[in-house]
Amino acid sequence: MGAAVAGVLGFLLLAAAGGSAGDEAREAAAVRALLARLLGPGRAAAFSVSVERALAAESGLDTYRLSGGGAGARVRVVGSTGVAAAAGLHRYLRDFCGCHVAWSGSQLRLPEPLPAVPEELTEATPNRYRYYQNVCTHSYSFVWWDWARWEKELDWMALNGINLALAWSGQEAIWQQVYLALGLTQSEIDEYFTGPAFLAWGRMGNLHTWGGPLPPSWHLKQLYLQHRILDRMRSFGMTPVLPAFAGHVPKAITRVFPQVNVTQLGSWGHFNCSYSCSFLLAPEDPLFPIIGSLFLRELTKEFGTDHIYGADTFNEMQPPSSEPSYLASATASVYQAMVTVDPDAVWLLQGWLFQHQPQFWGPAQVSAVLGAVPRGRLLVLDLFAESQPVYIRTASFQGQPFIWCMLHNFGGNHGLFGALEAVNRGPAAARLFPNSTMVGTGMAPEGIGQNEVVYALMAELGWRKDPVADLEAWVTGFAARRYGVSHRNTEAAWRLLLRSVYNCSGEACSGHNRSPLVRRPSLKMTTTVWYNRSDVFEAWRLLLTTTPSLTTSPTFRYDLLDVTRQAAQELVSLYYGEARTAYLNKELVPLLRAAGILVYELLPSLDKVLASDSRFLLGSWLEQARTAAVSEAEAHFYEQNSRYQLTLWGPEGNILDYANKQLAGLVADYYTPRWRLFMEMLVESLVRGVPFQQHQFDQNAFQLEQTFVLSTQRYPSQPHGDTVDLAKKLFLRYYPRLVAGSL
Ligand SMILES: *[C@@H]1O[C@H](CO)[C@@H](O)[C@H](O)[C@H]1NC(C)=O
Ligand SMILES: *[C@@H]1O[C@H](CO)[C@@H](O)[C@H](O)[C@H]1NC(C)=O
Ligand SMILES: *[C@@H]1O[C@H](CO)[C@@H](O)[C@H](O)[C@H]1NC(C)=O
Ligand SMILES: *[C@@H]1O[C@H](CO)[C@@H](O)[C@H](O)[C@H]1NC(C)=O
Ligand SMILES: *[C@@H]1O[C@H](CO)[C@@H](O)[C@H](O)[C@H]1NC(C)=O
């Protein structure tokens, strides 16, 4: 390890060292409480949990020690921090008890008595940090959460050994105070903030105004949540990352300070300047340090601090100049405002910008940013490292510390997807990179609640020095734990998924679900996938043949539904392909047949099977939004925010279907009417001998999409029907056709 690297690591270690006996006791108590929530107080009593900083004395890296168990003996879990103890506990539950904890449900059947740890087991992570979240996760997944849901997530984070995470709730309430103090009016502020479902992009300066304004009750609720979230994170010994000023300001600043030097940035995401083209304060403007320090002072007065702050000035935004001196000054001013308030400040930067606009961010531009902050004070998230790592082409971020992050998911899409081989090898390779300044691993999905196997692997890698040696064996164990029994068929199904959907590589491979099912139809959609569809259909068959023995397992039911959903998605592609071929060959009867099956059989069947599980209901999704409101008017407003996010994204379909989901209700009332219209127009085109007009279709489709968004129809938030029966029905209808090779 070079001297520079050691210096960087040294600084970061110092920043988080310390801790008294009081802290140890508090963290141990937090983990005991987690254990009681997870297993119930009775089972929790069979464990003894303590926190001893000294356990990590040598390496300074989080460490846990397991011992005890067996007849009559308590299982002893010692961690160097609360998070380390929780990770140790999870390790015990996973590897000794065969348990599983996941978003979709947990499998916690504990053997009786608790298995003994035959030899005391001590494990230290090679990673100073295990990071979690993406700025976008707050909008795609967390936006409507209450404390009960947050509490579950924080438990999941601790069990997965996460010790660094964004804590960005409630920041608009602080910004509001700051802007009022600066002389903006309430209505100017209201016009500036985006709606709740679009706050992530307001925070990064991509958007303003769209989907707003934020009601006063929103600020109160988010402040309350932020306090509870911070308390809990700190009680586990996690480091929360607070937001800082990145330079974006409301337009009204120019009314209050007519001399201020601001630059209007370009538009973002097909939004016009009513919603994007935000104003960036010039780095040399005297107002820059004033606003930056005012915000951070107010924020830390309210919430305290752990000295790491997130800010993104040019995320997906073209800077006004590519001059290195300008970029250095823009960067330095953000950092300066931080250290003015907190001399120990470390800046956490999402490195997404470098790989998103590589044509702009040449070596000189990247160097300007990385060099503008003292070494060790800029902590870079290599956000999409499993696919496009930036550390390689920047000589390990030129000596700034970085975290190897898996991004994996865009927009919280459903759709089975993963690059498990790349994820598995990535962190170890980055650590071995010459003069590597890697200080951690991370998960930075835009949305959660999908493809849990990918997150299980990544969380495990946070505590491993080397990749998992045999992914096939690993996924076999994963399946057994997930369902609580080892079964030949389910394990075979998972191996098929591993070699197909989860072994993504190449062009068609993407964390976006680009299935025609969830896109506005056209004659030009691609149906190519990176895997052999037969593997998915075969996995589907294998899971179904495992019923009824596993049907009481919530995680099995989830996977059965998810794979059925995936099979339906594949079938839509196949029938779409048939319909298109028939149309292009001007064959009416085959067109009618494929169109009829797709619109009147396949999509309705998919909607029905989704409707049988509470985890796949539009009704539950929208209910979350409504429940966050304090009045009917607010409930309506939040619901519309949520519907926009799922579909049009902006007023005119600006980022159409980006955050697509496959939920009961959404399939029936959004995707299906669009497909019906498309097929009708194709048929009409053939019958009347007139060309199909994509432009005309797009206009008509937009009417349907907008009707869905503006609709106030309520959807059930309770499941209806039996998943296994409905999945079987779908299977029996289509699988024989697939095997016979004729749809
Ligand atoms: C931006 O688009 C909206 C509709 O989406 C429109 O109402 C508004 O006038 C447009 N603003 C500008 C500046 O073009
Ligand atoms: C405004 O800021 C820009 C960018 O920093 C700078 O190039 C320009 O000279 C400034 N203009 C004035 C009038 O200070
Ligand atoms: C690693 O750092 C050392 C010391 O700064 C330097 O001499 C060496 O060239 C670096 N190696 C690479 C591959 O960058
Ligand atoms: C994934 O695909 C690669 C080729 O792209 C192959 O070498 C590897 O064995 C596959 N892994 C699994 C688990 O199937
Ligand atoms: C896909 O898998 C099926 C079943 O294993 C096999 O028959 C077929 O040849 C495979 N197709 C390709 C393109 O590899």
TrEMBL record:
Pfam family of the protein (one): NAGLU_N
GO MF entries: alpha-N-acetylglucosaminidase activity
Keyword terms, alphabetized: Glycoprotein, Glycosidase, Hydrolase, Signal
Domain Alpha-N-acetylglucosaminidase N-terminal intervals: 29-116
One of the protein's GO biological processes: carbohydrate derivative metabolic process
Keyword Hydrolase set for record: yes
EC top class, as a word: hydrolase
Source superkingdom: Eukaryota
Keyword Oxidoreductase in record: no
Catalytic activity: Hydrolysis of terminal non-reducing N-acetyl-D-glucosamine residues in N-acetyl-alpha-D-glucosaminides
EC id: 3.2.1.50
Residues of the signal peptide: 1-21
Domain Alpha-N-acetylglucosaminidase tim-barrel: 130-465
Domain Alpha-N-acetylglucosaminidase C-terminal: 474-731
Family: Belongs to the glycosyl hydrolase 89 family.
Protein name per Swiss-Prot or TrEMBL: Alpha-N-acetylglucosaminidase
Taxonomic lineage from the root: Eukaryota, Metazoa, Chordata, Craniata, Vertebrata
